[in-house]
Amino acid sequence: MKKSKVMEKSCGAVLYKTVDGVPYYVLVLGSVFGFPKGHVEGSETEEETAAREIKEETGVDAVLDTGFRRVVEYRSPRKRGGRKTVVFFLARYGGDVSPRAGHEIKGLVVRPYEQAKLLLRHEALRSVLHDADEYIRAQALPV
After folding, report:
1. What is the model's pTM?
2. What is the number of other CB atoms lying within 10 angstroms of the CB of residue 117?
3. The domain 8-140 belongs to what CATH superfamily?
């Protein structure tokens, strides 16, 4: 009998703020650079998970833009034969970010698009960042 594949689900966001009209992106460092994200707990919605993870990993309360939603799927590094789905929203913040002590995050950086893109090892995350940057810039253009 064939076992069904185990599916993990996480949610997070491309977290940014705009300085002098330029978007700056927050990348968190775990084993590699990525966006704030984490597992859905209990009956949380995707949005609730993303907001909680942003707060836990960066210390900020962000405003989610659910009009931007990207899904990335890949093999789970933790479970043999498992798959992982990660839902990313866009989230804007003000003030300063700082990694939360005692969390799995080793650090974070805030960088403009071109520099942030170079720090992302995974092509799927670079694609999400690209889409987010285009989305942000399109929103700022006059109608």
Report:
1. 0.88
2. 17
3. Nucleoside Triphosphate Pyrophosphohydrolase (3.90.79.10)
